[in-house]
Amino acid sequence: xxxxxxxxxxxxxxxxxxxxxxxxxxxxxxxxxxxxxxxxxxxxxxxxxxxxxxxxxxxxxxxxxxxxxxxxxxxxxxxxxxxxxxxxxxxxxxxxxxxxxxxxxxxxxxxxxxxxxxxxxxxxxxxxxxxxxxxxxxxxxxxxxxxxxxxxxxxxxxxxxxxxxxxxxxxxxxxxx
Amino acid sequence: xxxxxxxxxxxxxxxxxxxxxxxxxxxxxxxxxxxxxxxxxxxxxxxxxxxxxxxxxxxxxxxxxxxxxxxxxxxxxxxxxxxxxxxxxxxxxxxxxxxxxxxxxxxxxxxxxxxxxxxxxxxxxxxxxxxxxxxxxxxxxxxxxxxxxxxxxxxxxxxxxxxxxxxxxxxxxxxxxxxxxxxxxxxxxxxxxxxxxxxxxxxxxxxxxxxxxxxxxxxxxxxxxxxxxxxxxxxxxxxxxxxxxxxxxxxxxxxxxxxxxxxxxxxxxxxxxxxxxxxxxxxxxxxxxxxxxxxxxxxxxxxxxxxxxxxxxxxxxxxxxxxxxxxxxxxxxxxxxxxxxxxxxxxxxxxxxxxxxxxxxxxxxxxxxxxxxxxxxxxxxxxxxxxxxxxxxxxxxxxxxxxxxxxxxxxxxxxxxxxxxxxxxxxxxxxxxxxxxxxxxxxxxxxxxxxxxxxxxxxxxxxxxxxxxxxxxxxxxxxxxxxxxxxxxxxxxxxxxxxxxxxxxxxxxxxxxxxxxxxxxxxxxxxxxxxxxxxxxxxxxxxxxxxxxxxxxxxxxxxxxxxxxxxxxxxxxxxxxxxxxxxxxxxxxxxxxxxxxxxxxxxxxxxxxxxxxxxxxxxxxxxxxxxxxxxxxxxxxxxxxxxxxxxxxxxxxxxxxxxxxxxxxxxxxxxxxxxxxxxxxxxxxxxxxxxxxxxxxxxxxxxxxxxxxxxxxxxxxxxxxxxxxxxxxxxxxxxxxxxxxxxxxxxxxxxxxxxxxxxxxxxxxxxxxx
Lengths: 177, 770
Description:
Chain A is α+β, with helices and mostly antiparallel strands. Chain A is 32% helix and 15% strand. Chain A has six helices and five strands, in the order E-E-H-E-E-E-H-H-H-H-H. Chain B is an alpha+beta fold. The longest helix of chain B is centred in the last third of the chain and has 27 residues, at 525-551.
């Protein structure tokens, strides 16, 4: 108990693409991607919901696939392509179809889960877009309602009862088809 | 007469949804102030213990630690509904949440590290975790600040209510059923954990709080009492709030603690709960045992209800102790009931204390009440839908408790779900055999729909302004916790003033600016704040009409407000609204286009016997639920939920659906999966992995049918809707499970273990009978 560490932890250089911009920084090995995004890059749209990978509020895309950033060590981001909710919106402020659909379907109440939900839905979209470089299976067509529900299992929401979120995703896939 | 509505009743998306969906909304977690420190709280290791000493010397030495406080450093008052709750504990710990010390440090990591360096010597005591133990003569007094006004030292609060002649009604009863129901601890699990940023300015001695309270003006008063300050020296600003559901009705110790850290350091301090801390230290729905005896005459008319409730108050008393206000209302006034006697006792224990939670005791009451209705129907051999329809509340009814139903959609709600769910056909066909059994259940609910007068005022103030560019600013006392009240207010202003929605701003986050309001509770915001806004609009229109008449050279004031114009209904001449406002400002009478209004509902404070018309109007709802029970695993799957709710009028179908669906899914969680498990005063499942909330994959089909009764008290006839959808769900599910299995369910949640035990119990019973 008595140890008061005076030794400074070794810093690691990481370089990656964050919302289509090349960035690099020096960080401790213990830093989580969630904290790096929020505290160093000051992108507050990625939300800290539980810190243990259960609620999905902190979901970001790593090389196109949804990941809980609270469980992902930031050093492992090196060389990767990371997209946060801020990167989903175009630079002119226009919303991504996923976001537009969530708004139009009344899928946003308190909104704390919404960033994660949007990124998860975008992740599912990526799985269905052959052009995108996504690890894992590339699928054809559009996901069924059940598939959407299953995919969103890792994103908790306390306000909406999920119905409008599922509706929004389903409508978006149909429209994008 | 209401004119044809243009915007009210249309599915307008939440006005800041685009901001929220792009991650640009600023929640408490996102606030960063210059020089800000990070706070953390050391909680007791033992739910019941003597604190022999606290040594913070090692922690103070840690580089980056700026301030550490214990009870000895805090000149503060107790908090809580009964003022029986010290914000930092001295001498003893009585609950696993108890705050022993608090740290402010340069970083979150240092603050957490410092907590580990604080040494506390405890002398462990045997805690009291059962209300029956606490009520024993030999039990020690758990809360030494309790009022002591009851016959037992561990009673925190009691309620007694009655109407009618119970003994007489018992005699008239053909059947009497008596059951005891047990209700679990459920937690709000808001997606954003509890948070506060406090910034004390030691130059002008003012305290600025970024707080996610849902009752900012009561909070300001409570905070001032706790810190011995003047309420007006405390400014409460609400960042975007990541879920409330009642959890933010009480002020909790972490909030004045954070303020104290800021006062002591002269720097802003931010305190954010971890998820584990959120499960341990944020409030819960009251656990309780409800003994209900109810009768029915041979025709199926309900005769009486007799209720005894014992609530586990936990170690301290919150607003949760007042839930019997609502609980007794359900028992006294849901369905026509000639006599009712109600007693409830809240008992101190060393468990975690309850707070308020959407429904405010009503889901518990409705579960017991609706379960017993099914049992009474079975005794009578009467159809479960028919017995409900026979006893349903009616328009014009004044209940034994003095509630006046000027409008009442109860019967229509019941008829709607019975029809839409094909209830009668299902109920008849539900006796299948095999592994999967289907069941159908019904339940109704009654809740306040026009606020609840439990303070001296249930009012809400509005300041309304139109600027020289034709934009409208609504400064409302009410606040937004995600439910969409801002959108509804903007829609009302747009409807009445003919100003397009994008030109309407709602200001509602700052106690220094906004007029008084009780806060978000009792499903009151659309009703109370809506009426308040309509009052302000009426006053402002008198001013605008006068100037418009002058400019249009007419002497009447028969105007329509539309397309940002004021239009004469006689001549069809029109003038731009912004021009009228400019002329008001810059020429005679040189006045502002501003109006203010304070709306107080027509409801009455109840008398000392709890009688009186406590709400401006009342909401009714019925739900029918179909379940499938896996008799091998005990798993209950909800297939369909049919909801009919008397909402008065649909103001915004999109937001209304959201309230209904969100409430129903919380209700399913309450029925089937959610329980904060406690053993010896400690919480066993403080995480999302073991506290089971429903996910998207678990959501059934929810079929919603709004019932419009157009109540003259409500804005455009609307009633409150926020809580209702959650209230009957667990009761309907329990009835469906009982229907499927022909068993009795007496407690929630209905876990697979309980289902299997019920099936086994039934088999055992049959074997014994043979």
